[in-house]
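Q: What does the assembled structure look like for these inputs?
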Amino acid sequence: MTTHTGDRLVEFAEVLTRYEPVIGLETHVELGTASKMFCGCATTFGAEPNTQTCPVCLGLPGSLPVANAAAVEHTIRIGLALGCRIASWSRFARKNYFYPDIPKGFQTSQYDEPLCTAGHLDVEVDGETYRVEIERVHLEEDTGKNLHVGGATGRIHGADHSLVDFNRAGIPLVEIVTRPIPGAGAKAPEVARAYVTELREIVQALGASDVRMEQGSLRCDVNTSLAPIGSLEWGTRTETKNVNSLRSVERSVRYEMRRQAAVLDAGGRVLQETRHFHEDTGSTSPGRSKEEATDYRYFPEPDLVPLAPDAAWVEKLAADLPELPAARRARLMEEWGLSATEMQWLANAGALGLVSDTVAAGATPGDARKWWLGDLARRANETGVELTDLAVTPAQVAELAALVRDGKINDKLARQVLDGVLAGDGGPDEVMTARGLVVMGESDELVAAVEAAIAGAPDVVEKVRGGKVQALGALVGSVMKATRGKADAATVKRMLEERVIG
Amino acid sequence: MAELTELDAVELRDRLASGELSSVELTRAYLDRIAAEDGAVGAYLHVEGRAALQRAGEIDTARLAGEELGPLAGLPVALKDVFVTEGVPTTSGSKILEGWRPPYDATVAGRLKDAGTVLLGKTNMDEFAMGSSTENSAYRVTRNPWDLARIPGGSSGGSSAAVAGGLAPWALGTDTGGSIRQPAAVTGLVGHKPTYGSVSRYGLIAFSSSLDQAGPMARTVLDAAVLHEAIGGHDPRDSTSIDAPLPPLAECARRGATGDLKGLRVGVVRELGGEGHTDGYEEGVLARVAEAVQLMEGMGAEVREVSCPSFDLALPAYYLIAPSEASSNLARFEGMRFGIRVADDGAHDLDEVMALTREQGFGPEVKRRIILGTYALSAGYYDAYYGQAQKVRTLITRDFTSAFEDVDVLVSPVTPTVAFPLGTRVDDPLAMYAADLCTLPASLAGLPAISVPCGLSEGLPVGLQIMAPALADDRCYSLAAAVEAALDSARGSRFLDQLTTAGGAA
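A:
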């Protein structure tokens, strides 16, 4: 099989009969600090180009950096949450290379003296736990953004000219690097995804970043290699860049496994290179070759003094960490009465917060779970959006559940109310009133409908009176049909019982 | 009566404060002299003519209105072109920055503005402060007012020539390996390199970040101390800035001038011109320094010889560390955001535009050091070069530390020779680098060191270097003031008056 990119691919299941994958992830998280890493500029996303800049983040001659203490604190907290060792002495280093989006001709990063090292993160896939070893967590600055104008692809090739926006330049960036992850076999793509998902949850719980992959505040580089089963050496890895959604993380590993297997099957050699991931096709294409590795000439940044986090302060940060997602999930599973599968599904959908916010807004855990895992999940799936991006708030879901609980609407009406809410017609109460979706009380209309049902089915009435009480259901059904679902089934049943059984 | 432009800055300050002299009058006197003589001297890259007079006028008006003014209100000053000045051309002596008008002020430039000074202009320098003669400037030759055929020192040679030549009452320079002290020495000025971290580097176009330090260049020790006080102190925009108050430098300079050195322990560094280490040193230089040491002894100082064996390694260590940092600091000059851009004609791609801009924008010495530094930082060479040099740096610091257990200050010549003739070392980098032999150790250790004139050799100034422990800049000023006062009193005139009576530059 080949794709439009021309890559030959091996069927996924077949890959695993001959090869063992090793994956690794480098994740960049833009911290949500109010100001940049080395200057006081604002970090608001989506501002007019080059409006959030100053001599420091533009790299003007003479300017000097001053490290953002809040960013250092966030980095240490992330390290602590990942069980890392926090360095008592850490330095920034210059990573030297030329590109228009790095204003100083070097990126201020960390090299051999990172803030955090040697941690781990346990992730669960299909009930099995995989331990991902964390090599290091370090702090650096983001680059500017190049905009290539005039080309068809938005890439530099074919563009008329290029513009640079330095608003992003200097935004604090935490890089979290795993050690190679062997042994996941067929689950490697899912382990990669579960790892990023879990990491995102942790960073979010720490309040360190908004971790919005689509806005680039969480970005992944995914390394994949294959080695023949039983081989003592790992294969040559590729590094897939621009993997900007959880789904893409999984797909990129899957694709690279299939592509590399085809290369190896044909007796070829996997090139050590960076590759680009394409959301539309789920494929990767070659980027820059790493065969002639750039020498970044790292050396300690002389413009910044070393960081020496005080041990007592680090201990306090550790003690003050919030409840982490894994612990929180265990607790909520218990509290909400969820199955492990449901919990994992919610966690993977990034929807735990939605449920807990719904509960906090007054819904029972059962109701919150019912709506989010039921109707809303189905609609999200049908329309191809994330659960978190549906146009309904946890408070509105709680309100909807309350309307049902109070008997003002039934489940069927509630779904129609939800349609209105999702269509942007207002909150549940508003939609209910505006569309007249109120449950019919014991009105003349309902009495008439009940009596008509009794009169129209003497045989059923006979059966019920003869002791077959379950036959009453047919009468309930015809009343509901006559009232076009606006009646409350329980009320109808009671009214029928009063009249038929006496 | 001496011309206005010959007076000490402190004297001018007092006359301005008393209202007996206006800033416009003084500024005009300097501008006139610059117009008349700078063609021959070549001290300035940019002169703030009308803007300076306007600023002077504003200060005079404010003074007449009784407004509160800064301590140096109305006093002209010249800045080495390495300092970023808002709206005023700043080139660091390089073609690559031609035409750049920065959008901000260096901290020290801002502090001088706040103190009320009037900027006369920006002075010439070796490109990116790399050199010891100012001959590496991309723009013009600067001449020594004592002998126009000779170098004014470097890299702050424009500042030294301006102050010695009466084209500015005082000036700021920067010192990475001796770039304040050596030009001060060869032009008969007082020049001080402060403790690393005690004067802000924010807005100083970086050559070597771990070594660069701004400082004063002046006609007298007291002037230098007053200027230092105006620029020094903690700056939150420079992470390497020390958060400690400055010692009272002007006060120390005044007290030092009384000449009582009883109890002061002075160490003469053997490795800097002492026995067995005289190669390359001129006899006249060593003689003047020895006389100054005797003078100190006469004033009550206890003098002893001190050995600092690692100082012999200072030169190679410096020429690895400084170029390494420079290779990275100068990476930002690629024609994308400021300065010149070459070959942006649609026919060249990004890498070519960057490369051609750097090819044409940088001079040969800058390229030499970028290549040297790039090599020293390369994978596989880092440990052998940059890493080793950092170890030598530690050894030098240890030599200082142990020396300062026995003595309060260390002394040596500032530079092995008097001002050499223009053109004689341009093609011999190693000979040029040797001019920094005596100044490099204090630079590598981050210590304060001052150059104070201690006499003439062959009619040219000789400088005495006084080095002190970190943050003890006051010791440099007080001992320098004692030497200056004793020599002035023996001579019956200020050191620089010898230049004016000799006819000077004109």
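Chain B has one domain: 4-270+406-501.
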